[in-house]
Design a protein that fits this description.
This protein is mainly alpha-helical. It has a single domain (11-177), classed as Fumarate Reductase Cytochrome B subunit, CATH 1.20.950. It is 65% helix and 3% strand. It is built from 5 helices and 2 strands; from the N terminus they run ααααββα. The chain has helices spanning 11-32, 34-37, 45-72, 84-113, 134-169, and strands at 119-121, 124-126. It has a two-stranded antiparallel ribbon. The chain is elongated. The mean pLDDT is 93.
């Protein structure tokens, strides 16, 4: 049964949500397609990898900005009719999303600092702070890969739950983050 629309997130939070959502989907797609875009041991590989690293560092900065904004601005209250277990599940899901969004680029950055290749931030070399240490690189790069797949699963779950709230529950949850005429 539809209920009164809950209060909305502010315009900055909504803008950061949608802009970062689109940028993260693009960056994750880029990451999953790296081997197709620039196969290993080809001349194009280094430039493509460094573009992925550069975009990842920019995203990490924007994610920190988003988290800082979120910590300083309260979320709108959940609808009164929303069960407590759903509120807890939403909190856990959002916490896991934030954790993955922060840890994924951080793991890639740390891995790159244990590689002889380091990072070229949009063409400008950043001096590595770690030695060329293949075991550490492999560990953090593996963590980066696992977190990439984890974030993909969490994003799919987030979108599925938003669809459920929009089309089945019709409880106003989606409108809290919406722009446009349908938003109140």
């Amino acid at each position: 049964m539809p209920s009164a629309a809950p209060a909305r997130y502010d315009a900055v939070a909504r803008t950061l949500h949608w802009a970062l959502g689109a940028a993260l989907l693009a960056q994750m797609s880029f990451g999953f397609l790296l081997d197709e875009l620039a196969p290993r041991n080809t001349p194009a590989r280094a430039a493509v990898i460094n573009l992925h690293k550069s975009c990842g560092l920019v995203l990490l900065l924007l994610i920190v900005l988003r988290l800082a904004w979120r910590l300083r601005h309260r979320a709108p209250p959940w609808p009164a009719a929303m069960p407590a277990w759903q509120r807890r599940a939403a909190g856990l899901g959002h916490g896991a999303l934030y954790a993955c969004m922060l840890l994924l680029p951080a793991a890639g950055y740390v891995a790159s600092n244990f590689s002889k290749h380091g990072i070229k931030f949009f063409g400008r070399p950043l001096p590595p702070w770690g030695p060329d240490w293949p075991a550490a690189y492999a560990f953090f790069n593996g963590m980066h890969d696992v977190l990439g797949w984890s974030l993909a699963v969490l994003v799919a779950g987030h979108v599925a739950m938003a669809a459920k709230h929009a089309w089945i529950d019709r409880d106003g949850i989606v409108e809290r983050m919406a722009f446009g005429r349908g938003a109140r």
